[in-house]
Each structure stands twice: as C-alpha cells, then as structure tokens.
Design goal:
The chain is built from two helices and seven strands. By secondary structure, it is α+β, with helices and mostly antiparallel strands. Strands 1-2-3-4-5-6-7 form a seven-stranded antiparallel beta sheet, with no helix packed on it. The longest helix has 32 residues.
Length: 148
C-alpha cells in the first residue's frame, strides 16, 4: 500500500509541475503578445507625402527633355481686347504652323491646352513679354523676329 501511495504522490507532483509549466508558458505568451497601452497610442500609420518629394517611379537617369515650343519660334500677330483684358495672338513661324494665345499669364496652344514652362504678359497695346525659364523676350506688334 505504501508503494501505491508513493506512486500517487509522484503522479500528483508531475501533474502539478506540468500544470505550472503550462500556466507559466501561457502567461509569458500573453505578456509578450499584448501591446502596452502606451505603445498602441504611439503607433501611427505611415503616410507617404508625395507633394513634397519626387515621384519614386520616375527614372532618375532620364534624358533632358526638349520643350515642345521655344519662344524664339513665335511671332506676335495681334493683340485683342476682350472683356477688359487683353489676349495676344502668336504664330509659330518655325516648325509646325500653329496659333497660340496668351491669356492672363499663360500661353494656350492647340485645343486650348496650356503650353508648359512659358509665361507672359501684355505690357501695352503693341508689346508683349514672354518668359521661358531665365529667358525673357519682348515682342512688338508688326516687328520681325529673326533669331536663327
């Protein structure tokens, strides 16, 4: 009978040790998997602010792009007063023959599309200033332009 009692004690001890081990393992897993409240408050999702930086999908080694139109290729053909404002009419004498309009400070081309990188203003009834990059050219109505 004493043998049986010793066996039961050993079996009971094994069960308690196993239960204690399982309970401590569960407690350790809970402690490391549940974030603390301060960590959860500090976690902010990352937002990519594309308006401040370059487009990451554009190739850095791109060749220099030639502008679609140079202001040297234009000649002033007329200035029209419309609704209190003035519109300057330009004609391209070099390359494809097209007409352009300077309304406000922007130059508009075919189908009313804005020509990029060219700004300008009507100075008086016969003079218009066009700006492309660092270059500024005043155009006079009736004047000839030979920049070749």
């Amino acid at each position: 009978m004493t043998i049986m009692r010793t066996g039961n004690r050993n079996e009971a001890r094994r069960r308690w040790r196993w239960a204690a081990w399982v309970l401590s393992a569960i407690m350790l897993l809970c402690c490391f998997t549940v974030p603390l409240a301060s960590e959860a408050e500090q976690a902010v999702p990352y937002l990519y602010k594309s308006w401040d930086v370059r487009d990451p999908f554009v190739v850095l080694l791109a060749t220099k792009v030639k502008p679609e139109l140079l202001i040297h290729e234009l000649t002033l053909t007329g200035i029209i007063g419309i609704g209190g404002g003035k519109v300057a009419i330009f004609k391209r004498y070099k390359g494809p023959k097209q007409t352009y309009q300077l309304r406000g400070a922007r130059l508009y081309g075919k189908d009313g599309k804005v020509v990029s990188a060219i700004r300008g203003k009507v100075l008086d009834a016969k003079t218009v200033l066009l700006i492309q990059g660092d270059e500024e050219i005043p155009f006079k109505l009736g004047g000839t332009h030979n920049f070749d």
